[in-house]
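Fold this sequence, please.
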Amino acid sequence: MSRGQHLHNKVLLKPVEETFQDFVWETIREFYVRDEHFTGFIDLLAIKDDTTIAVEIELSSRRVLRDVRKAEIANTDELWIVVPNSVVARQVKRALQNQKIKGINMKKNSIFICTKSTAISRVSNCFPPKNSAE
């Protein structure tokens, strides 16, 4: 396993996936998406009730437009681009702004750029269990 794969899969993706699972979300790794012009895999798809979140782990800004396209094809409510640090977060934000993404067809058009710790906090703070006895 290369260093990038370790950082991508073990350090960033796995803890986010486990947090979703702790809050009783269904998670699917490498979710396949396809339309007539595009084929790809979403790193992690999280599903609970009527909410679907695409989670993409990015170590640079190079592939973020593909991430948006994959989330659009999957018709997710949100796209979370999880990055290793604030420097990459700024690069991703700049790449998205420079492309002036228009016509995004995601359900709610919500794109969040965050570090692993922010993603984990967002799961627990924004999507608490409906019943505290669960």
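The chain has one domain: 3-126. Residues 3-126 form a domain with the Trna Endonuclease; Chain: A, domain 1 fold (CATH 3.40.1350.10).
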